[in-house]
Every structure is written in structure tokens, then in C-alpha cells.
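Aim 2 progress update. The chain analyzed this quarter is reproduced below.
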Amino acid sequence: MRIEVWSDVVCPWCYIGKRRLETALARFPHRDEVEVVWRSFQLDPSVPEGQTHPTLPALAAKYGRPVEEVRAMMRHVEETAAAEGLSYRLADGVSGNTLLAHELVHLAAERGLQGAMEERLLHAHFQEGRPVFDVGSLVPLAVEVGLDEAEVRAALADHRHRPAVLADAATAQAFGATGVPFFVVDRRFGASGAQPAELLLQLLERAWADRAPLST
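Predicted C-alpha cells:
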């Protein structure tokens, strides 16, 4: 059974959703027969590549809300994250274009390291306050999970995985996804948002029960 998760590495709810999915999988009797595939989705593809900006004032401007109101919303997300064992400091965050990060995740998938790369990027951004928007920031993280530095630099320079990133975004749009995380099981069942682990477990159980019986 395959679970595809559309996610962005600067989406706080995506990291929460990842932890909840892991909790659900830990309770799922058939977890050894489940493949998790990470798909690309950019929260804000309009940000020019190479530019970064403080997240707090940018969100306040985007939604037309006072900064302190957005800060309070961030505190709520931080409390939710803490319940999943994650330590966020969202008001101090920096945002930027995540195309290169998504390209890196696709490269890692070719080397059997996609899950580790996704986790490392999320952890770096949310728990360490490290940038994940440029080659200089991404290469050390890639090397940490076992990727070859020269290959990473070459792949991010020639953008060989960009078509795959854009294809992921197009597929999400075709599925009607307007935000992330977005979970799809066997291209038959879906759930939007960082659903509680209990609901994700129900999704897995339903998808498993719906599988066609093996022919004899």
C-alpha cells in the first residue's frame, strides 16, 4: 500500500502531520507493507528564488491581520506541535522559495533516502532555525543523510528534478488539494490537513480493507 503525502518543508502543519502519520503507522498492523512517498507542494511559489524574508510580518501582510494577532496564531500552532514532540519558534522564522529543497527531496528518493531527507529539512527549518532555501544551506543537510555532495551540487545546479517537482504540484491541483499536508492512499482515499493520528489510522484501515483480494 502506498501513502503519498504532499508537503512543503516550511509548512508547520506538515511536520505535525508527519508525526501524526508516524503515530498512525506505528499502530497499523500492516505497516511493514506500507510505502510512504513525499510529494512536492509549495505554499507560496510566488516568492522569487534566492530571496528570503521574516515569516511573521509577511503572514500579517498576506492575511491583512495585525502582527500580534498572527503571533498569537503562531503560539497556538506551537502548542499543537509541542504535543507531537516538536519545538517550534515560528515568530522567529524565515521563509523563502522551496523549489531547491523539493528538488533535493526528489534526488534523495532516487537514492532511497527520501524519508530521511524530508525529516532533516523539516527539523532544520523548524527546530534549528536553519535556512533551507539555497544550495549552500541544503548541501550540508543532504550530506548528513548520506547523499554525495558533488551529486547534490550538480543536481541542484542543472535542476534535473524540477519537472518532477512541478508534476507533483500539478497532480495535487488535479486532486483538488488547496493546502498541505495532503494524504492520498493508493490514489483512492485522501485526507486533507494535519488530521489526528486516530483519523489517519482509520484511513489506513479503510484503504487496506478495500484492497482487491489476490487472485488464486
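The two ends are 20 Å apart (CA to CA). The chain is about 55% helix and 10% strand. These observations will guide the mutagenesis experiments scheduled for the next reporting period.
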